[in-house]
Amino acid sequence: MIDLKILKKKLGILCFVTTMVLGFSGCGDKNPLDPKDPVSLTVWHYYNGSQQSAFDSLVQEFNDTVGREKGIYVEGFSQGSVSDLETAVRDSIEGKVGADAMPDIFSSYADTAYEVEQAGALADLSSYLSEEDLEQYVDSYIEEGRIAADGSFRIFPTAKSTEIMMLNKTDWEKFAEATGASLDTLATVEGVTATAQAYYEWTDSLTPDIPEDGKAFYGRDAVANYFVIGMQQLGEEIFHVENGEMTLNVPEEALYRLWENYYIPMVKGYFGAYGSFRSDDVKTGDILAYTGSTSSAMYFPDQVELEDDSYNIDYIVMTAPVFEGGKHCAVQQGAGMVVSKSDEKHEYAAVEFLKWFTQAENNLEFGCVSGYLPVLKEANNVEKLDQVIEEKQLTVAPKTYDCLTAVFQEMENITLYTNKSFENGSAARKILEYHIADKAAGDRASVVTALGQGKSLEEATAPYVTREAFGEWYRSFCDELNHIVGK
């Protein structure tokens, strides 16, 4: 964690000087840039591979055009992973020996940005953007960026994502032909659970001489999203934040519905999680379908690779399932960009670059490679996507294109949601991510042992699927969350 006391002392003089220089006037009142004396900006991000290449290409285009005209030169640096980037920012902001100087701009998720904002190290972007500017962006993206205590704007949305469901079409069709299973059933969380049970039982029946060797059908990345969005679909908000204060909301019956549609099918082997990501599990043939980020579409495999065989597969992109009778909402995720508090010239220049990067044509070009959603309202439609692809002669992977268009076609029917930031929000989210998943994995291992001893699936899972077992988990889950948030 950042040492707020030390940082605030270091920033005290800087804040005073900045205030005096600005004379309490709005930073957006004039253009402080001079093309004859260009300002250089550093950007830290976590893009790698094709995403980094696409970002670097757009940075170069900016430098050669608008940047040259206005006197702005941008240089991007990948810090590796999201975790590596967060560590680099913390080391820099705390002035650790050997740490690089703070960048002018860096990618940040809301929880990390909130932490840095509490330390007083982020620029107030409201000073550089008019209401007309802000109205061009998807409303919920702008609202997510208002993390300061006074509601001012701190996180500039640059590339967003939500969740979709991807399915191994080739093996699904074999299952559907044999059992009559319908894709329509996969529209709900409960339908996915029922389908997964049917798939387990069908695959088990294919080897009658080997009992209880059914296969998992489904898995999901980001279990924390399952909690946050699942609760929201059921009309509850697990982390309710108002005026910077978080109230924990953990109604037992709502959490029971989440438990019986994740923990129970995991323990019974209807769901699975084996590799680092669920797309890895599709590749090894361990599952057929998963819920994951739109940006994961490019990683959906073209083949299933078994120990002694491999074969090509096709895919289906679907909207993520919703609880029966629940609100049609989906997770809003993806890091934005924040600007380090410095001086008017650097902050102004940073916003100019971010405004350019998020123009529809540029943002969609990046999204065609990365799988991220554009942030302007006008850019979130298939017609605009097709226009940009044609005008810029872009080559777009079919899976990425199908994923983007599937989301665009549902945008009017989906409410995107992310909880507001709060103190210890990252730690609380880790409880959502690992608490139930770790227990499910451990209990599944015990079930597999019992199956190996000759017990039936019903006998092996009996101790784990009762209401009493849920009650034990529920109390432990609440205790962990309350401990983290200090309640």
Short description:
The chain is of the alpha/beta class and 487 residues long. It is built from 20 helices and 15 strands.
Topology:
Layout: H1 4-22, E1 39-45, H2 49-64, H3 66-70, E2 72-78, H4 82-93, E3 105-108, H5 110-118, H6 131-135, H7 139-144, E4 155-156, E5 163-168, H8 169-179, H9 189-205, E6 218-220, H10 223-233, E7 239-242, E8 245-248, H11 252-260, H12 263-268, H13 278-283, E9 289-293, E10 303-305, E11 310-312, E12 315-319, E13 329-331, E14 336-339, H14 344-357, H15 360-370, H16 382-391, H17 398-410, E15 415-417, H18 425-452, H19 457-461, H20 467-485
Parallel strand pairs: 1-2, 1-3, 6-9, 13-15
Antiparallel strand pairs: 3-14, 4-14, 5-9, 5-12, 7-8, 10-11
Helix pairs in contact: 2-15, 10-18, 15-16, 18-20
Features:
single chain; about 475 residues; alpha/beta; five-stranded mixed beta sheet; four-stranded mixed beta sheet; 20 helices; 15 strands; about 50% helix; about 15% strand
Describe the protein in words.
This protein has 487 residues and is an alpha/beta fold. The chain has 20 helices and 15 strands. It has a 5-stranded mixed beta sheet. A 4-stranded mixed beta sheet has the order 6-9-5-12, with helices on both faces. Strand 10 and strand 11 form a beta hairpin. The model is unreliable at 4-28 (pLDDT under 50).
Tally of contiguous helical segments: 20
What structural class results from the helix and strand content? Answer: alpha/beta
Kindly state the number of beta strands.
15
Strand order of the largest sheet: 2-1-3-14-4
Main sheet properties: 5 strands, mixed
